[in-house]
Structures are given as structure tokens and as C-alpha cells.
Design goal:
The chain has 288 residues and is of the alpha/beta class. 31% of the residues lie in helices and 21% in strands. The protein contains seven helices and eleven strands. The strands form two sheets. A six-stranded parallel beta sheet has the order 8-7-6-9-10-11, with helices on both faces. Helix 3 links the parallel strand 6 and strand 7. Helix 3 crosses helix 7 and helix 4 packs across helix 5. It starts with a helix and ends in an 18-residue tail after the last helix. The C terminus is likely disordered.
Length: 288
Amino acid sequence: MSWVAAVARLRARREPGVLVTVATVRGHAPRRAGAKLVVGRTETWGSIGGGNIEAVAIDRAREVIGARDPEPELMEFALNDKVTGRHGVQCCGGAVTVLLEPLPVVQAVAVFGVGHVGLELARILARHHLDLHLIDTRPEMLTDERLGVLADAVAQIHVHHTPLLPEAVLTELPPGTHVLIMTHDHAEDAALCDAALRTAGLGPIGLIGSSAKWARFRQRLATEGGHDAATIDRIKTPIGIAEITGKEPATIAVSVAADLLRSFEQDRHRAAPNPVAAVPYAPVAGST
């Protein structure tokens, strides 16, 4: 499997990993610069040459996977018989620098309703490294022509055509997905709110609309849906930053996106290291 396919597999699994690349080679070494290895929690794909270099790099990569806020880093290896590494001796005669690049699990966002505000929001979110799900019951909202503004997206975009039951998409979303409900139909919004509260594993739920709309929804969720107050409070409304009060679609989208990005930062700082994945690391003898 190519390293590109391995990275894609980790992303599809929503599993963190590390891309390990031979950055520089001086003298003789097992692999040339550019050789790559992808490390997951329990699997690896590719090779940077085997032996002590690869074993130590895998150990360090798994420690990086378990770190709270990992950063790229370089490791240097001297390949001679005077250096004993943690996993043995490699005496090729050269020196190798290896770059470790974290592959974190990206955030996932689901936008239910790709109207004027939804499309403006998608345009902003598409510029970020995340999984973006776009759902609408109206086929004309999801045409290739209309979504052409997202053609150069950094995000991976998943378009869901759901003419009948958009709430069915909720069970297909990755764990922890941030859900934003902003359809053209208040009845559809209400059904989505009810279904989202019944779907395990979702992240925060946001609803666009006025306080009058929310008052009606809250009553229905309690009386018809049977949800208790604490469960209903999982839904945030209004969405966005309160101090941004403009009504234009682009202004609302900026407000919602900014609030969402702030939430991502909070999630990142709350994330605890994975104690199982972490592997103690000591510098390699003879390396700098």
C-alpha cells in the first residue's frame, strides 16, 4: 500500500497517525531521502529502511500519537559500529535525518441546509482541514454547478442528497461531529433536533433561528419528544458569536464559523493524551 493510501485509510478510520520521512541522507544509508513510513496506533505501512532507525522512529511516532498537541520534529541517526541504538546497531557508515509529521484526526462538521447561509458557511469551512458534510432535501441546492465554489476546498467534502429523511444522515456521521441545523423548513429543523438528541456519539448541536422559534421547539421537544431539560440543553441556539449581529448571509456565516473554530480550539485543549499509545522515548545514542 502506498503511503498516500495509508494516510487516506487512517483518515477514513478517524485514527491519528504519523508520517515518517527520510529527510536527508549523508553517506551510505538503507533508504534514500524521501522514503516514507506511515505509523498508526497498531499498524505501519511502508519503510524507511528497517533496523534500529525504523524501530526507534516507530516508537517515537507512537509517543507523538499519544501527545496532547504534537508538532513535527526531526530525529538524527549516526549509522556506524560505534553507536548502539535501542534496537541494535546499523553500521552503513552514513547519517540519516528523519522527519516525523503528526496526522491528527480532523474535526467533522455537518451542515443541514445549504441555502444562502449554509453555502456561505460551507465556503468558509471548506478552507480548513476538516471533514465537511453538506445535507439538503432540495436537489437544486447540491448541484455541481452551485457547489463549484468549493472546488478548491482544503476540507474533504461529503455531499448527502436526502430528499425524504435528512435525519437518517445523523447515524452515518463520524463520532463527535459538530451538527449545525439551518434548513429552509422549521418542521425539518424540529425533526432534526429531535433525531440529533436521540443519536449517540454526536458532538455539539447548533440550531439557527430566533428566540421565538426556539421557545416553540423547546416545548415540543419536551412534550412530544419526551426529552428532559438537560438533554434539550445540548442544543445551542442562537449559533455564532453574539456580538456579531448582522443579518446578511455572509455575516452570519462568518459569525458561526468563528464560533465553531473557537469550539475546535477548546476541544483540542481539552483532549487528553492517550496513555496506551504513548511510548517512553530517550534520545538515540550518537544522535543529535
